[in-house]
Amino acid sequence: MWKQNQVTHDPEKIAQIEQQFAVGPFVAGLLLERGLGSKEELDSFLHPRPENLVDPFLMHDMHKAVDRIQTAIIEGQKITIYGDYDADGITSTAVMYETLVQLGADVHYYLPDRFIDGYGPNQAAYQKIITAGTQLIITVDNGVSGMAAITAAQTAGVDVIITDHHELPLNLPKAFAIVHPRHPAQPYPTAELAGVGVAFKVACALLDEVPQELLDLVAIGTVADLVPLTGENRMLVQFGLQALQQTQRLGLQALMRAAQITPQTVNEQKIGFTIAPRLNSLGRLESATPGVRLLTTLDETEATQIAAQTEKLNQKRQKLVEKITAAALEKLDAVSETHLVNVIAAPDWHEGVLGIVASRLVEKTGKPTLVLRIDADRKSAKGSGRSVEAFHLFKALDVHRKLFQSFGGHHMACGLSLDPEQLPMLQTALDEEAQKQKLELDQKGTLEIAAQLSLDEIDENLLADLKKLAPFGPENPQPVFAFKDYQLHGLRLLGQKQNHVKLTLTGKKTQIEALAFSIEDQRADLLQDAASIEFVGKIEENTWRGQTKPQILICDLADRQPAFLDLRTKRLTPQLFTKNGTYFFFNQRIQQKLAGYLPPAAVQVTGLESLPAEAEFSELIVVDCPPSLTELEQLLQTVSYTRLTAIFYPYKPVYEVGMPTRAQLARVYRFAITHENIDLKNQLQEVADYLKIRKELLTFTLQVFFEVGFVKIEKGLMTGCPAHQTVNLKEAPSYRSRQQLLQAEKVLLTSKTADLKKWLFQLSAV
């Protein structure tokens, strides 16, 4: 659903922002809508400076953590950073590692193996670290859910400092220090820092400055973890993008070369869709440890080798995701649609990509989704969940912790494992929690439309203004526009699967290309009638061969007309009548024959006279071909609907036979007036053969002759009656009816789907 912005702003305030910050009126309005009203807020947003960053010591236990780390460095204690296997965890580990190396610490790092250690503190892994001589463990991007491992470490005399950003459980581990932006004892002004953001604040506190050289890593982890890009997060990403565009890190340079990225063009989108997925692929398929080496190495050969391996794993990851997503969708098709949350599991799915698969299923179904791999030998189902904005996944699962062998996560995502026998209970629990949270499923949700623009309003000045709102991300979304005053002048399908499309649009002065990706569900509609499709999208820059031009990235496509399904057929089958909708019949005989095949909840309407005034139907299914186009027009002008299904079954089709020719009419007339008492019941086929006319046409012709008095029929016997004056056969009721039916059948049964759809909706009241 698209929601057009209706907010109006004080013209004086808009003019003031335009003058003070050199932006156009449209962007000035967007700044106000994003809650930036004061000069200080606007200046911090549009011109962020390092001094605008928040004091790191405002975070809980920061003083305590810094003191303990400094003691460990002074005393030469062995420190191990315990990280995580995703992009946020990899960058968090690299930030903390480089900081401690700079301070002269005896520092090492350990990234848990997704398949052996699982998410978060693992007691066996901790014991291995401690046995190797570690005297201080610092977690990054994990820790608050590691009660058992941390308790064991502290009991063994090894302090644990937790730096984390995930949801806090009711009972926190008894760690030496918990550095967390949402700790209830001391909430930090930027509550939604990523794990790398928390690690970076520790680095700032330890170094007593803002380490600019770490900001490229901070940008990657922050964008990858999908935290809100507002306040300090946005500043960190903005600074980090500048650092990335001129990064001296050999590993990042090699990674960007392998991914065919020009460093100077790196933005938040290229982090989110290119850099972060490659880092994630390491921990998803093998070990994430090379990711830290990639980001911290000073050896160009090592950087190139790890980048190449990363690229290879990313390609493997893409193929796995595609395969498992297809299999998962098949499983979901077989599951009842009554569930509010998807819970799906199988024994042969690769555990490392289940989070991505869950995201794909959320996109496809609009439902929160958990995807798990069943390991029968270990009696464990382990996987990931992804949610929708309207459903707090962590809260829903947190109250059912007794079901799980392990669990952690936040509002939109989770990781968990449980006994496979508990899966039905998990499904029931999540459906109940969805009801408690009053989750209303809406596959696409509401898409906020910033404004409607004509194509000629899209120029370099607008692009420059929009860039001032970047970097974009959660809670600082890239504006989405609707478009007007354009003509469609070209459509091309792109990609190996032909599932992307490029549209060429022209305004009065401007030509712009619009791109839409993964349009499998709407490809047929686009090809049939692209002009009837409307779209909304984002305005971006496209640089090609040294030229930079605006382009539109399409976010959503919609048919300007109601949904249409073409089920035209000459043969009725039970499969045509499985939907609950309003079935309309022109012919009562067909309705009587089919009444028993329709679903119990279906509505049946026969004849125009049975329609209620101003009828509104969710789905209108027209079963049979109308006797005339006029009656179909009356139907479509009387009712409104959101979906039209056309079956148009021809009960007694005439379009294949047509109308009798003038010669045939004359031949039948001559025969009729020269014969008496023809037994139509027994001799009709014989007469048809004699006159060389199809039996159906002969029957029709005799009916017309009877109506105009050329023949009389008594007790099944026909006798001709010579005409004494000129008669216009076309005025006979049967002749008019057949002509009208013939016209209707030609239009409705033989036209192409796109032409039929266009013609029907031109007649409709909707």
Automatic annotation (TrEMBL):
GO MF, any single term: nucleic acid binding
Residues in RecJ OB domain copies: 450-556
Domain Single-stranded-DNA-specific exonuclease RecJ C-terminal: 565-760
Residues annotated as domain DHHA1: 346-435
Alphabetical keyword list: Exonuclease, Hydrolase, Nuclease
DDH domain ranges (all copies): 78-222
One GO term (biological process): DNA repair
PANTHER family: SINGLE-STRANDED-DNA-SPECIFIC EXONUCLEASE RECJ
Protein family membership: Belongs to the RecJ family.
Name of the protein: Single-stranded-DNA-specific exonuclease RecJ
Organism field: Liquorilactobacillus satsumensis DSM 16230 = JCM 12392
Organism ancestry: Bacteria, Bacillati, Bacillota, Bacilli, Lactobacillales
